[in-house]
Design a protein that fits this description.
The chain has 2 helices and 9 strands; from the N terminus they run αβαββββββββ. It is mainly beta and about 230 residues long. It has an 8-stranded antiparallel β-barrel with strand order 1-2-3-5-6-7-8-9. The chain is rod-shaped. The two termini are about 40 Å apart. About 20% of the residues are buried.
């Protein structure tokens, strides 16, 4: 047997051993791109923009042929729409006393974003090859950011029970932020197309806290996730 043949056989054997070792390795790493609608107060808080978008890195450990635990670190964006917070009524309200009153026309855009941590258990569905269910806990470290714009007005009355006059004053241009930790549950179903690609439908609990009012805005999200296993 010449040297070239020996080298070829050694190379082929090395590739086979590498493939077997890779298949037996209980650890796996995947990246998942996800997005979907939001519901309840978190949806109302963001002006009913109504969706989330982001991605996760997931480290999995195979417990058996049909079960796995996984830990993920990701980031989510909950984009917001502009919504009216306060406005100057038309016609102006009448005042029972002479004086100077403050009115405002304020518009707010509330965005939420933050890191997401999760620990889940995953089990195969025996009835459908490639399909699986999963459930666990999820923690969102979510930062709410409120961008306010508008104008402050002065209503001046010099006659009792009159509306007086309205004068435009200073502009409103403020940005406030608040970060809170939101633990919750997550559950979903998935399907593996092969060893590299998967598709999931997941539900999880999330939330944010308004920096201007301190009110907790809890809610839920449903996402479709496309995974690539390395």
């Amino acid at each position: 047997m010449n040297n070239l043949a020996r080298i070829s056989r050694i190379a082929a054997l090395s590739m086979m051993m590498g493939t077997v070792a890779s298949a037996q390795d209980p650890w796996s790493l995947a990246f998942k791109m996800a997005g979907g609608p939001t519901f309840q107060k978190i949806n109302e808080y963001t002006g009913k923009a109504g969706y989330t978008l982001g991605g996760d890195f997931e480290l999995g450990y195979q417990l058996s042929k049909t079960s796995q635990v996984a830990f993920s670190l990701g980031y989510r964006f909950f984009p917001g729409d502009f919504q009216q917070v306060s406005f100057v009524p038309t016609p102006l309200p009448t005042r029972a006393a002479i004086g100077v009153y403050t009115l405002e026309n304020r518009v707010r855009k509330a965005d939420v974003q933050g890191f997401q941590l999760a620990a889940i258990y995953r089990g195969d569905l025996a009835q459908w090859a490639g399909a699986y269910w999963q459930g666990g806990v999820r923690i969102g470290i979510n930062k709410a950011k409120e961008i306010d714009t508008g104008t402050i007005y002065t209503q001046t009355t010099t006659v009792i029970n009159s509306a007086g006059t309205l004068t435009a004053g200073s502009a409103i241009a403020t940005v406030t932020e608040k970060t809170k930790v939101y633990p919750g549950l997550t559950a979903g179903l998935g399907y593996r197309f092969n060893d590299s690609y998967s598709l999931e439908a997941n539900w999880y609990m999330t939330g944010a806290t308004s920096p201007s009012t301190g009110v907790k805005q809890s809610g839920q999200a449903a996402e479709l996730s496309f995974g690539i296993r390395f």
